[in-house]
Amino acid sequence: MSTLDPVIHAPVRLQVMSLLAAATEAEFSFVRDSVEVSDSVLSKHSAALESAGYVHIRKGHVGKRSRTWLSLTPEGRAAFRAYVETLQRIVGHPLTEAAGPGDAAVP
Amino acid sequence: MSELSPDEALAQIGRTQQRAYARQQLPLWYPAGFAALMTVTQIGLDAEIGVLFFLAGLGGIAGMGAMMAALGAWARVRWAKQTWTRSALAAYAGWALVAVVLAFGTHNLVFDGFEAPWRKLAAGGVVVVYFLLTTRPAEALILRLSRGKVVA
Hints:
Oligomer: heterodimer
CATH class of chain A: Mainly Alpha
Shape of chain B: elongated
Number of domains of chain B: 1
Helix content of chain B: over 70%
Strand content of chain A: 15-25%
CATH architecture of chain A: Orthogonal Bundle
Structural class of chain B: mainly alpha
């Protein structure tokens, strides 16, 4: 456990990183709804991930509405991959299955 | 919340990604609307240069561009390419291919007795109904076929 990245290995931050690993970019409200946390909790954790250099926060506009977008930085992607590899070593089974109709889902 | 065990953490990664995929659904108006605009565009472009050509043909092309822009503005997440499994991609391609087969099939076999613009309109209408009826089931199938792949 000592080798697991403490920035990622926290329930909310792990969920944020997991979601962003599958996306090129996700809107703040989408991440908030998916992870099921409040605005303030997500703000706090995304700021921590941004400080660690793992997440890039971009503010933009769609029409008159302002939107905040989150994405993983290259460092964040590398850190998440390393985190998953460490987990796999500890647990002793791979995370990513060769997906297909007959393949087992990740537990 | 307490610290996660490595087993729980691995499971959490998969669950989070699957839950997020399920949250982003294609708006029902998009595939059906796109098929409708494509039909209108084809009818317009078949016409001689005049009001119908400009309104339906060029207006339809502009409408499809506007729809794509609207979808881009509406989307709250942009998924990475590696989220697709081969079987999910095949299901998606199959769903789109059936629409093309339906359009050509009904146009050439079912509505071949219709006059030119009505023939296209009827075939286009079939595809619009097909998309309205199958978008959600197709999404559910694609989601089911995406299970088991976790992006790290």
